[in-house]
Amino acid sequence: MAQQILKGKKGIIFGALDERSIAWSTALKAVEAGAEIVLTNAPIAMRMGKINELAKLCNNAPVIPADATSVADLENLLQKSMEHFGGKIDFVLHSIGMSPNVRKAIPYTDTNYDNFLKTLDISALSLHKLLQSCMKMDALNEWASVIALTYIAAQRTFPGYNDMAEAKALMESIARSFGYHYGFAKKVRVNTVSQSPTITTAGSGVSGFDAFFTYADKMSPLGNATGEQCANFCIAMFSDYTKMVTMQNLFHDGGFSNTGVSNGIVEEMQKAAMASENANS
């Protein structure tokens, strides 16, 4: 049995779609660690996914639909969650991201700007709307922890990531900016976790994902971090053991973010070069 490091804590998990979702694993781990949770997702995602199955696995956790781009939906979610818990909230996982341009395979240099605005609203501004709603409703306890999932494409160029790169960069900035204000106001912690490429429904939709997943695994000294390992990290960030960590972008990627090149990649390139030379000789 897991250590009960979230015993007595209450939280909201956004974005669990199916077993491959990091949010799905985080919900299970949170309950295992002693927490009570509420599950939420956009109504259309709830129809597509298996969130009700997850709810049963999480001690019949309530499922409250919410479009994260709608302040009214977020306020309803927070109000109903506090009524269910009989008090304020201790942690929130923001695991939300969607790009119509990516879904429609529209190249970055041909960006559809209406789609781009939707990407920013869903994937980045939703965090600001959530935090603003929490602050206005005084929905979070002091020392509460908010985590938003992100990716290193916010700092470096990964062509297939398209306009999601801008969205993640904006989201990370919102976490820092709102983290400053929420920290002084209520001691609330706001951080982002930059995860390895992970085989999820959303991640697999990125162009060239399979090849890059393998590349990142060979580049990272510890290999790619799994979704379950990311969930464990989120549980640690929700706990009191990380009480003084806020406004940070935390890389959970097996060392990929600080590795220039690995011997494995160099060796593969050398083999490819030799094979090319032999073929041309």
Percent in helix: 40-55%
Mean pLDDT over the full residue set: 94
**Number of H- or I-type helical stretches:** 10
CATH topology: Rossmann fold
What is the terminal separation in angstroms? 61 Å
Radius of gyration: 20 Å
Q: How many strands appear in the DSSP assignment?
A: 6
The CATH class turns out to be: Alpha Beta
Q: Specify the biggest β-sheet.
A: 6 strands, parallel
Q: What do we call the CATH homologous superfamily? A: NAD(P)-binding Rossmann-like Domain
What's the assembly state of these chains?
Answer: single chain
CATH architecture: 3-Layer(aba) Sandwich
Structural class: alpha/beta
Low-confidence segments? none
Topology:
Layout: E1 10-14, H1 22-32, E2 36-40, H2 43-48, H3 51-57, H4 71-85, E3 89-94, H5 100-103, H6 113-136, E4 140-150, H7 164-186, E5 189-195, H8 209-219, H9 227-238, E6 249-252, H10 263-280
Parallel strand pairs: 1-2, 1-3, 3-4, 4-5, 5-6
Helix pairs in contact: 1-9, 4-6, 6-7
Can you walk through the features of this model?
- By secondary structure, the protein is an alpha/beta fold.
- The chain has a single domain, classed as NAD(P)-binding Rossmann-like Domain (Rossmann fold, 3-Layer(aba) Sandwich), CATH 3.40.50.
- It is 47% helix and 14% strand.
- It has ten helices and six strands.
- A six-stranded parallel beta sheet has the order 2-1-3-4-5-6, sandwiched between helices.
- Helix 7 links the parallel strand 4 (140-150) and strand 5.
- Helix 1 (22-32) packs across helix 9 (227-238), helix 4 (71-85) packs parallel to helix 6 and helix 6 runs parallel beside helix 7 (164-186).
- The longest helix is centred in the middle third of the chain and has 24 residues, at 113-136.
- The chain starts with 9 loop residues before the first strand and ends with a helix.
- The model has no long low-confidence stretch (mean pLDDT 94).
